[in-house]
Amino acid sequence: MELMEAIRKRASIRSYEDRPVPDDKLLKVLEAARLAPSASNRQRWKFIVVKDRERRKALSRAAGGQAHLAEAPVVIVAVATMPEYIMRCGIPAYAIDLAIAVDHMTLAAADEGLGTCWIGAFSQEEARKVVGVPDNYRIVTVMPLGFPRLPGREKTRKSLDEIVCYEAFRE
Ligand SMILES: Cc1cc2nc3c(=O)[nH]c(=O)nc-3n(C[C@H](O)[C@H](O)[C@H](O)COP(=O)(O)O)c2cc1C
Predict the structure, then answer these.
(1) Ligand 1 pocket, Cβ-based, cut-off 6 angstroms
(2) What b/e string do you get for 61-74 counting C-beta neighbours within 10 Å, with b at 16 or more?
(3) The whole model's pTM is what?
(4) Which of 14, 16, 117 for mutating ligand 1's site (highest number of atoms within 8 Å of CB)?
(5) Ligand 1 geometric centre to CA of 55 (Å)
(6) Predicted confidence pLDDT, tens digits, the chain (171 residues)
(7) CATH class belonging to 3-163
(8) Domain residue spans of the chain
């Protein structure tokens, strides 16, 4: 699949088939995260693959009952292991590093015919307990992965004119 095709095809999937993700597909998705860039190439991250049904249900509860987390056969918990590092630009590196790695996974998943959904609405403390993440680390997302049962919504996006300006900032 062409890169732009995967970018167009990727959508937030909130309904999954009840069948496992084959190991070769899962490994391709994880490999896409491994190859992602990170600030100073620190790679201070860990990706926890959760397949256990009870644990997925607990993660779903930690995310306010978002059912797709329990429904998907796999949940990938993306953990930043150096959340304290702030770049010179004033931005914490971990949020960017993990966003890039997770986005790589969403695109690789789309390429493999799999669905994903970025989840930001979850309790850090509850999710931490479910997968045993230490207090000094930070969970950036808990991402369901599986074969889509229903397609994602049609993309609604601003036009390029609204989001791009040239040479200097313009509202
Ligand atoms: C940082 C972030 C947090 C999000 N949190 C959630 C969430 O908790 N639950 C959910 O169902 N979707 C969540 N989404 C998915 C967005 O709603 C979705 O990406 C957006 O509506 C665009 O739709 P698309 O992903 O299908 O293109 C999140 C997306 C991002 C990038």
Answers:
(1) 11-12, 14, 66, 117-121, 152-153, 155
(2) bbbeebebbbbbbb
(3) 0.97
(4) 117
(5) 22
(6) 699 999 999 999 999 999 999 999 999 999 999 999 999 999 999 999 999 999 999 999 999 999 999 999 999 999 999 999 999 999 999 999 999 999 999 999 999 999 999 999 999 999 999 999 999 999 999 999 999 999 999 999 999 999 999 999 999
(7) alpha beta
(8) 3-163
